[in-house]
Amino acid sequence: MSSVLTQTEQARLTALQEEAERRSSSKMANYFPDSGPCAREHYPKQLDFFALGKRTPQRLFMAANRVGKSEAGAYETALHLTGKYPDWWMGRRFHAPIEAWCVGTNSQTTRDIVQQKLLGRVQDIGSGMIPAHLIERTIASRGLPGALEGAVVRHVSGGESVLGLKTYEQGRQSFEGTAKHVIWCDEEPPADCYTEMLYRTLTTKGMIFTTFTPLQGMSEVVKGFLEPETEDTNGVKGYIQAGWQDVPHLDPDMQNAMRATTPPYQIAARTAGEPALGSGAIYPIGEREILVPTAAIPVSWPKVYAMDVGWNKTAVIWGAKNPGSGQIVLYDEHYMGHGEPASHAEAIRARGDWMHGVIDPASAGSSQADGRALIDIYGRLGLKLDPAMNAVEAGLTDTWNLLVSGRLKVQEHLQNWRSEFRRYHRDEQGKIVKNSDHLMDATRYLVLSGQPLMRIPPARVVQRRLNTASDADWMSA
After folding, report:
1. Does the structure show a pLDDT above 70 at 349?
2. Which residue range(s) make up the domain with 257?
3. What is the pLDDT of residue 285?
């Protein structure tokens, strides 16, 4: 018998070898390599996100478009399903088969994004992140053509992991029931769905991680990570933010092309992963465009403060003007709830009792406490205050003009101001959402009414502080 293969047999053998090689390899084996243009050292944000999973059961990868957030989610999910962790893996490990859910917005996006990244194209199951030879079987869906309900994946321990594919459009009730070890949410989930999914991981001491671009702004889910209301989330929740500057595969020409087709109010979210407020944002400008580093204010710059009063929150913002350029810099804030006027007045005087300020004009009415006008109470406590104009739309317009022209900047340490700025928006009827807007109101008062009251400190104050200031802080005297 001849050992020489015919041309047809050789072609068939080659095809079989190529198929065997394809099935034994996968995207998972080629992601985050040791070296090359796509080496993992070039993707520090993804590595930070993976490592965070070892410390926190709830994670958010809040990232710009095209930085590889869904790829990161699919990659980690594939590792947990198969147990095939690379040597460098810094995140959590499961040493036995798991049950997992991977969730998308609707049936089509789940099929075209989540399913494809994990299992491959509809016509080529096994071409995704999970190695083809480890996919034992798939579970067909009765709905959208080509969509799957899940798959069974072989785990390195010899058992089988179970993958379920779900959508948010199925509603909260569809997430009731069995416990899960891992849940990956691709795109932002509704808050009620997220809470229900979270409960599925409690009995297994599992994890839930979410990857999306924050186009819905400071939603309930985003706020739960960025600004938790209680301190008991430490060690429970964590997030990583990533933008175009954090990945090497987006060249400048591609970035410019994408930026040119992006609505202004979405640029911060789509390029830097910063929460946007959509077309309802009152100040549709990227936060990074208005921030400046924290620095001492020169003594020659005139200053003023503006105050918004209330029982739930009293907020004060301080501003200084560069006499050369006319640029205003917001450089300090006071943000305190449920305090008496005396405590607020003490904090304000500590910043400079010589300074003038403007106050919410409603303060000229009676105080709920004792019937006296708040502005009179603060006057007796040593504050030099004038009522501000409360022309809302005029104040918003003037403030916007200063922001967009670069004539109003904010020092980056003003976290309360930045928090309100991110959420300051109008509802669908065009009305300003009056929720956590105290520093925004104070800023409007400062812009509209405070500038004529700006003063430099009197000579006696300058001399007294120069006598006690060190060389390092003489500028702020």
Report:
1. yes
2. 20-276
3. 82
The answer to the question of residue 450 being in a domain is yes
Rounded to 5 degrees, φ, ψ at 58 are -125, 125
Residue 215 forms part of a structural domain: yes
Last residue of a domain, one of 223, 242, 276: 276
* pLDDT, mean of residues 414-438: 83
* Residue 282: inside a domain: no
Q: What is the pLDDT of residues 121-177, one digit of tens each?
A: 888 899 999 999 999 999 988 788 999 999 999 999 999 999 999 999 989 999 998
CA-only gyration radius of the chain, Å: 29
Residues 103 and 167: beta-carbon distance below 8 Å:
yes
Q: What is the mean pLDDT of residues 71-100?
A: 97
Cα 94 from chain centre: 28
**Overall domain count for the chain:** 2
In a domain, 63, yes or no: yes
* Order of strands, sheet of 207-212, starting from the edge strand that comes earlier in the sequence: 135-140, 148-154, 160-167, 99-104, 182-186, 207-212, 58-63, 237-242
150 and 57 fall within a common domain: yes
pLDDT value for 371: 42
